[in-house]
Design goal:
By secondary structure, the chain is mostly helical. Helices cover 66% and strands 0% of the residues. Helix 7 packs across helix 8, helix 10 packs parallel to helix 19 and helix 12 packs across helix 19. The chain starts with 21 loop residues before the first helix and ends with a helix. It binds iron/sulfur cluster (SF4) (2 copies). The site of one iron/sulfur cluster (SF4) has 14 residues, from helix 2 and helix 3.
C-alpha cells in the first residue's frame, strides 16, 4: 500500500458574524440616521485623515449598516477621528458622519467596559445624573464624618478633613480605575490586534519589534496625544478653524485641558510622595514658587481656562464639532470645571488674612468631585484619553510596517 499525500486544504477565512441589532444599538448611543448613506465617498474626499485610506470614514458607517460588530469594535481608525465636523457639512444625505463616529466611540467605550456602568452613563441620562450626584454626596459625607475642628485663624483644611483619609480613599479609587482601565484596554487591544493581525510577538518578541513598538508608542503618546500634532496641523490647515482667534482654537483648548488635568494629577501624586518621603507634610504652607505648588497652580489655571471655553463653545454650539451634545458630554465638562475652579479658589483662599468658612466647604466639594471624576473616568468620555493612544499606537505600528 502506497502512502498518498493529501494536499493541504486551503485556509478558510473566519466567517464574519453579523449582528442585525448593531445599528439600533448604536442609535441608543446617539448615532445619527445613516440609513440614507449610499457610500458616495464625499466624506472621504473631504476628511483630512483619509489621504492614505480611501475608505475612511465611510467604511465605519458600512460596518454599522451591515452589522459587522467585531470589525467596528476592532477598528483603530474609529479613534483617529478628532470630530472636526468637516465631513458633516458635505454629506449629501445629512447622515452626519462626524456625529455618527462620536456615537460609535461611546458605544465602543461601553462595549469594552465589562461592568455595564459606561452603558448606563451613556444610554440612561436621568439615572446617570442621579448616580453622579449620589456619588458626589457619598464622597462628601464620607469625608465629612471624619472632620476635625475648623480653625478660624488660618485655613487649616487638612486639620478639618485628615489628609490620610483623602490619600487612602484616593489610592482605593485609583486601584479601581486602573483595574477597570486595564480590563477595557485589554479588551480593546485584543479586538484591534486580532483585526490587524498584530500578535504579542510582533509587539514585544524581538529587538526589532521592541524598537518598532517604542517608535509607535512615542508617536501615539508623545507626538499625537500630548503634542496634538495631527490635531494642530489639521486645524491650521482648515480655513474655518483658522478664522477663530488662536486662544480659542480647538486643538489648543483641548491641549490645555489635557495638560491641566495631567498636571493636577501629577501635583497631587508628587505632594503625596513628598509626604511619604518625609520632605513635606501635606498641607504645610509653602511659597507660590515651590515646584509642586507651582505645577498645581499652572495646571489648575490651564484646566479652568480650557474647561470654561469648552463649556461656552458647547453652549453656543460655536463650531461644527459641538453642534449636538449629550448629557454625558455636559457631565464631564461640569465635573472638570467644578474640580478646577474649586481647587483654584482654595489656592486663593489660602492667601486671605483670616480663614473664610466657605474655604472649608469649597475644599469638601473639591475633594468629593475630584474623587468622583477620577472614579468615573473609565466609564465616561474621559476614557478616550486611554483608548485613543492605544488605537494610535496600532495606527503608527501599521505605518512603520508598511
Ligand atoms: S456619510 Fe454622507 S458623504 Fe459619507 S459616504 Fe455616506 S452619504 Fe456620502
Ligand atoms: S469628523 Fe473630521 S476627522 Fe472625523 S471623519 Fe469627519 S472629517 Fe474626518
Amino acid at each position: 500500500m502506497t502512502a498518498t499525500t493529501v494536499p493541504a486544504a486551503p485556509a478558510v477565512p473566519a466567517p464574519v458574524r453579523l449582528d442585525l441589532g448593531l445599528y439600533p444599538e448604536l442609535q441608543r448611543f446617539g448615532a445619527t440616521d445613516i440609513s440614507a448613506c449610499f457610500s458616495c465617498g464625499t466624506c472621504t474626499a473631504i476628511c483630512p485623515l483619509s489621504q492614505s485610506d480611501g475608505t475612511f470614514p465611510r467604511r465605519i458607517i458600512r460596518y454599522a449598516q451591515v452589522g459587522m460588530k467585531d470589525a467596528l469594535l476592532g477598528s483603530k481608525e474609529l479613534w483617529s477621528c478628532y470630530q472636526c465636523g468637516e465631513c458633516a457639512e458635505s454629506c449629501p444625505t445629512q447622515a452626519d458622519p462626524s456625529e455618527f463616529m462620536a456615537a460609535t466611540r461611546r458605544y465602543a467605550i461601553a462595549s469594552y467596559d465589562k461592568t455595564g456602568l459606561a452603558r448606563t452613563m451613556y444610554t440612561r441620562p436621568v439615572l446617570a445624573t442621579i448616580l453622579a450626584v449620589a456619588l458626589a454626596v457619598f464622597f462628601a459625607a464620607f469625608m465629612y464624618q471624619a472632620h476635625g475642628p475648623m480653625n478660624g485663624e488660618t485655613l487649616a483644611i487638612f486639620d478639618w478633613i485628615p489628609s490620610e483619609l483623602i490619600h487612602t480613599t484616593g489610592i482605593l479609587v485609583m486601584v479601581i480605575v486602573v483595574l477597570a482601565g486595564l480590563v477595557g484596554v485589554g479588551s480593546m487591544a485584543r479586538a484591534v490586534g486580532r483585526r490587524e493581525g498584530v500578535s504579542w510577538s510582533a509587539v514585544l518578541g524581538s529587538r526589532a519589534a521592541l524598537r518598532r513598538s517604542g517608535r509607535a508608542l512615542w508617536s501615539s503618546i508623545g507626538r499625537e496625544s500630548l503634542g496634538q500634532t495631527v490635531f494642530r496641523a489639521e486645524c491650521d490647515a482648515d480655513p474655518v478653524a483658522m478664522a477663530v482667534p488662536w486662544y480659542r482654537r480647538r486643538w489648543l483648548v483641548h491641549a490645555l485641558v489635557v495638560w491641566g488635568f495631567l498636571g493636577l494629577l501629577a501635583a497631587t501624586g508628587l505632594d503625596y510622595g513628598l509626604a511619604l518621603l518625609g520632605v513635606k507634610e501635606t498641607g504645610t504652607p509653602v511659597p507660590l514658587w515651590y515646584p509642586v505648588r507651582l505645577l498645581g497652580t499652572v495646571a489648575g489655571a490651564s484646566l479652568v481656562y480650557g474647561a470654561t471655553v469648552l463649556i461656552i463653545d458647547r453652549y453656543r454650539a460655536a463650531n461644527r464639532s459641538v453642534r449636538s451634545s449629550t448629557v454625558a458630554d455636559w457631565m464631564l465638562l461640569a465635573l472638570l470645571w467644578v474640580v478646577a475652579v474649586t481647587g483654584f479658589a482654595i489656592e486663593l483662599a489660602l492667601y486671605l488674612p483670616s480663614a473664610p468658612t466657605w474655604g472649608y466647604w469649597l475644599f469638601l466639594v473639591h475633594v468629593a468631585t475630584a474623587l468622583e471624576l477620577v472614579l468615573l473616568a473609565p466609564f465616561m468620555k474621559l476614557a478616550h484619553a486611554v483608548y485613543r493612544p492605544v488605537a494610535l499606537f496600532f495606527v503608527a505600528l501599521a505605518r512603520t510596517e508598511a
